[in-house]
Amino acid sequence: MRILIVEDDLDVARFIGKALSEAGHVVDHAADGEVAADMASEPYDVLIIDRMLPKLDGLSLVEQLRGSGSKTPVLFLSALGKVDDKVAGLRAGGDDYLVKPYALAELIARVEVLGRRTWIPDAQVTLVSGDLKMDIIARTVTRAGKDIDLQPREFKLLEYLLRNAGRVVTRTMLLENVWGYHFDPQTNVIDVHISRLRSKIDKEFDVALLETVRGTGYRLRDPG
Q1: Are 161 and 169 in contact (CB under 8 A)?
Q2: pLDDT band at 148 (very low <50, low <70, confident <90, very high)
Q3: How far out from the chain centre does Cα 16 lie?
Q4: What is the CA radius of gyration of the chain?
């Protein structure tokens, strides 16, 4: 994979870069947010971004990238580890959030989960639930003919829900099939992404498709 590390601490950047290079990845580095914004126009598989950056902070950088249409997965690294800090990172457009200090092996594992597509779609390239449609190949989503812009993790989450339309999916199922976790990271990452997805596919429409099944998980209604 090709990875961009956005980190102003050069020692930390070298340490992470060396480990990722030894794991077989191609690594570039940007020391501030403005340089990273320019470099991120190139094709990368994953962006590793520190929250506290000079010139343009990590949150603003990711918001700017998402606003310009970038769907490259983002892993935030930060010493800011409160729940509100993590939620802010995810709402800004991050796909994962790792608090410093961290185990290097966990960082590499999270990067590789973000960068690969562990869940291989079957031959079906168009998924439909009522007036909600997803084109797997074109990576587009529409509802009632209106385009819906989804970030990479939201797209994968909706894809899994569509493939299981009408059935309840548990949090464990989502963690394993959408995030690639085989353990509970004890965060509200699912709740944040479900809320964000619901606001995009349901908020402006008369009929809500995404349901919360209390105490169990979630279900995407299948009107058909």
Answers
A1: yes
A2: very high
A3: 20
A4: 18
Q: What is the DSSP letter of 32?
A: S
Quote the CA–CA distance of 111 and 81 in Å, as a whole number. Answer: 19
pTM, two decimals, is 0.54
188, with CB counted inside 10 A (0-12, 13-18, 19+), is middle
How far is 144 from 88, CA to CA, in rounded Å?
Answer: 30
- Specify the pLDDT at position 119: 40
Binned at pLDDT 50, 70 and 90, residue 116 comes out as: low
Distances in whole angstroms, Cα of residue 16 to Cα of each of 32, 86, 128:
16, 21, 41
The tokens describing 6, both together, are 């956005």
> What are the structural domains of the chain?
2-115 (3.40.50.2300), 126-220 (1.10.10.10)
Q: Is the pLDDT of residue 50 over 90?
A: yes
Angle 224-117-18 from CA coordinates, rounded to 5°: 155
